[in-house]
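Readers of this paper often ask what the protein records in our data store actually look like. Such a record has a labelled line for the sequence and another for the backbone structure tokens. The tokens are whole numbers drawn from a learned vocabulary of local backbone shapes. We quote a single record here, exactly as it is kept in our systems:
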Amino acid sequence: MRNGRPPGPPPLDHIALTLLHALDTNDDGNLDAAEIAAASQSLKTLDTDGDGRLTMYELLLPPRPNNQSAANRNTPHSTEQQFGGNETRQAVTQKTSPIPPGVNGISVNISGGYETDRRDGGRPVVLIAAALKVSSDVFRDAFSHVHPATGGREPEPAQVRLNKQALMQSLGPYGITNERLDTVSNYYRYNGAKGEMWRTTPASAYAKMQDGKVTEIVITNPGAGYSTAPTVTIPGMTNLKLKSTLSFGADFAKNGSIQAIMVEKAM
């Protein structure tokens, strides 16, 4: 792999899935007349660097999770599958909100922030645990009693019941109900093998400037779904090191959001 770009031509099935997710704005798995008419505008959502063209690298990026087809969202999954796939996803640089009129500022680039612990098989355990109001270690211990089906197969119904029972035996004492477990597992469910990502909301921010120096980083959208602190940079200011911190909690809309962005030091 060179410069983050996989060698050779991209797989056609991945490109087709990426394009469908971009064009199918109502998530019904089909392209109607209105969606076809708006295709040129919809395709712009894939232009992650805003240069007006689509590269093979951009077509290889995971489809946006909020564009999963309705059929995929409603498909029943086993308990272990509901908690995600087996690979870490790589985020792309996010575009920022416009700087308010009259403010001397510069756009901030926010990238990454979706890494997972090697122990977790691609599951965003830090987000799942926070949504369940337990520590990551508590959830890991509970999940260690689950026995997924091998070879990517669906587990037998009896095994699904045993897995759910094992999870509830470990998590029930923490006040977690079966309903809450299902809600959280469904929310963070994704299939990494299909290029999907768990649900995320990109963050955005800008830097206030005075006399050529950064005086403050203003977060215009804290985002959600970050599992690790994303990298924050300011174009043209490579000597400036910024540090982001995250906030986790039971509210899906705020779980894994950026709490603050600070100037750590000038290189």
